[in-house]
Amino acid sequence: MKNTYLLIFIFLFGCSNSEFESLPIGSSETEYLNIIDFPNNQKPKNIVFVVGDGTGINQIALSRIVKGGPDHKLAIDQLPINGISLTHPYGNLITDSAAAATAWATGKKTKNKYLSIDQEKNILKTLPEMLYEKGYISGIVATSSITHATPAAFFAHIDSRYKEKEIANQFLNSPINIGLGGGVEFFDIEKASKSHVLLDRKELLDLDFRSDKKILGLFDEDGIVRSEEKPTQRQMTAFALKHLSKDIDVCTGFFLMTEGSQIDWAAHDNNAKKMLIEFDDFDNTVKDLINFVTKDKNTLLIITADHETGGLQIMKQKNKNVLIKWGTGSHTGTPVGVYAYGPGAHKFSDLMDNTDIHYKILDLIGYDNLNESICELYQ
Predict the structure, then answer these.
(1) How far apart are the first and last CA of the chain?
(2) N or C: which end of the chain has fewer CB within 10 A?
(3) Residue 85 is assigned to a structural domain of this protein
(4) Is the pLDDT of residue 11 over 80?
(5) Do the domain assignments include residue 90?
(6) Could you tell me which residues are beta bridge partners of residue 235?
(7) What is the number of alpha carbons within 13 Å of residue 18 lying toward its C-beta?
């Protein structure tokens, strides 16, 4: 009997996913950014919406500790407004990226795997579709394929996130003016070349393109494999931002969604080192966007996550290392952070549902009072 109890004890407490991973505590100096105040009554002209897929508060905390210690300030740490978002989808406690992004894009809850349709498969109009009718132009950036769940929710309407060839077809007929990411295998390239300027090499992001045709950058067969030859989220976002903001005075404004997709993939694999590399690219993107907002003064920056992935726990310090533990290889229902900077940022300082973000954006730009028009850039 004693041996039986011992075996039970070992099973419950010794064979769980409880092995600690040790990572060095960093010592880098903080790079402080110029953060300015915005009056609460100022309306934003442009919206930049940044997604750290799978990025919970502990993913950010670990990145901070490993880069410069617990008192270090990442770029995301310097955003003046912080809130919390619930993430659950329709009929479930745990969301996937499709349902979460649908909540942002449409303001409606839906089932996991569904993209911008409701639980009864009725089409839900997305932010880029709504803004197109009011004279906006839009861009999508992702380190996954641009037909993957999060980016796809902003332009596709389909009952399975995995129908990526159909999602690619819908992209070509969508109002998205600039799309950058992976996903060559899902597109009819000959068809795409008739409606879009096609980019397939990182070097092309250094060029300026005319604003008389839509732009589609596809830099890998599926998700972008990180290498010196492939563009980063930071580089793709810089290109999209430069082109969307160029000549923007002839439009009502622009909307840009940029996602660090593979933070989530690394967390699914419980691969902390890979996650930290992906998050570093993400935070550098955030740094550039903060600097843009400070200079531009008309753009609202919003940063959040679709869900937390991995159940990451920061357990304790051992000498000059931090010990961590993963709780799962899946998504969790843990609420995630919301961070904002720019005109209207103060509206994101509360506890909110993920659908609320959609309506806050529309309210802040004064959507109902905008005139109907179509911007001719990148058409």
Answers:
(1) 76
(2) N
(3) yes
(4) no
(5) yes
(6) none
(7) 7
Instruction: Answer for the pair 90, 110: CB distance below 8 angstroms, yes or no.
Output: yes
Q: What mean pLDDT is predicted for residues 210-228? A: 95
Q: What is the pLDDT of residues 241-276, one digit of tens each?
A: 999 999 898 999 999 999 999 999 999 999 999 999
The label of the residue with tokens 């105040």 reads: 37
Residue 291, domain member (yes or no):
yes
Q: Is the pTM of this model over 0.85?
A: yes
Say how many residues make up the chain: 379
Question: How far is it, in rounded angstroms, from Cα 328 to Cα 276?
Answer: 18
CATH number at residue 131: 3.40.720.10
| Separation between Cα atoms, residue 364 and residue 338, nearest integer Å | 16
Cβ atoms of residues 93 and 307 within 8 Å: no
Assess whether pLDDT exceeds 70 at residue 83: yes
Residue 59's contacts (CB-CB under 8 Å, 6 or more residues apart) are 52, 263, 267, 275, 279, 308, 310, 312
Instruction: Tell me which residue range forms the domain holding 140.
Output: 40-367
**Domains contained in the chain, number:** 1
Q: Which tokens go with 138?
A: 């839009």
Nearest Cα residue to 339 out of 293, 298, 295, 297: 293
Rounded Cα distance between 234 and 285, Å, is 5
